[in-house]
Amino acid sequence: MTDFFERRTSRSAKWSLNLSRFAAVLFAISLLGHRIGPVGTIAFFWLLGIVAALVVISFGLMFRGFYRVWEHGDRGGRSLSRSIVYCGLVLVPYAIAGWYVYSLPRLTDVSTDLGDPPAYFSAQLTRSDDMNPIAPIGRDAAEAQNDAYADVTGRRYGASPESVLVAVNNVIKSRGWPVTYRFGLPGLDQEIIIEALSRTFWLGLASDLVLRLTDEGETSYVDLRSASRYGPHDLGANARRIRFFLTDLDAEVARVGRRVEQNGSEEEEADTSQSDTPDATETPDTN
Question: Do 244 and 119 share a domain, yes or no?
């Protein structure tokens, strides 16, 4: 009589797949919930920790499953392969964040002017106890920013504050940033202050941004400051935000300037044409 050997299915491989799949679904739901709004940032951080723990447990079960498949011939190779895919997808954002933590300085507040940063007004009053406090930028943080983000500097424009303010408002509107505070009027105040709320694209982490527009007479100067509300490390988001904003502002100031020049030329042509037109009320000289 012939005995048939029935291969066992590795329970470790099965549970590794279940946990990795659950971790991927939980990560997606947490991310979507935080982006839309129901999930708060602190709760989101806790959920990210739970997802990471599930992936670690899944990896442990995965290694045991590989051992059972290799040494005892258990079934489960397909489950293990799918588990690797799920864990890999979940770990991609963690790996990117880890690289930023390793390669970038630990900053939460970045400014184009480190000697006299633009001051917050609304953010200073509205931040809760669980958020990063608004505080002066220390010497160590300033040196770290200079070393890592030497290109994060203010902009001087050869345009009036009125024109630059129009460009600033256009860029803020195009980025969908809600304005939380305004102070100052061009022509009346030397400095105009605008505060807005910005969020990172993928994780939706909030930062408060303050812009200072200074009237220098023949020129206008723009300084920006961006401070993360949560977390001990901004992962370089504040410096990137300032860079992208100023790049867009450069283009917008140029566009607004061309439009102002075009309107001025049209007005001059209209005035010239009106001055060349004979007055209809004049009586023709018939002599």
Answer: yes
Q: Do 119 and 202 belong to one domain?
A: yes
Scanning the chain, the segments in alpha helix (DSSP H) are 11-36, 41-72, 77-103, 122-126, 139-148, 161-175, 237-276
Determine the Cα–Cα distance for residues 193 and 239; give it in Å rounded to an integer. Answer: 19
The total number of structural domains that make up the chain: 2
> Within 13 A of 275's CA, how many CA atoms are on the CB side?
6
Say if residue 40 is in the same domain as residue 126. Answer: no
- Which of these three, 79, 103, 127, is where a domain ends? 103
Mean pLDDT by 10 residues, the chain (287 residues): 57 88 96 91 96 95 78 72 93 96 97 97 93 95 96 96 96 96 93 96 93 95 98 96 97 86 56 55 47
Q: Is 36 exposed, middle or buried (0-12, 13-18, 19+ CB in 10 A)?
A: exposed
- d(CA 266, CA 272) in angstroms, rounded, equals 10
Q: Is 16 exposed, middle or buried (0-12, 13-18, 19+ CB in 10 A)?
A: buried
What CA–CA distance (Å, rounded) separates 225 from 124? 13
Write down which residue in 103, 137, 161 finishes a domain. Answer: 103
| Chain-centroid distance, C-alpha 97 | 14
CATH number at residue 207: 3.30.310.80
pLDDT in tens, 234-271: 999 999 999 999 999 999 999 988 776 666 555 555 55
CA 159 to chain centre: 28
Whole-prediction pTM value?
0.83
My answer on whether 78 and 120 are in the same domain is no
Q: 160 and 77 in one domain?
A: no
pLDDT at 195: 98
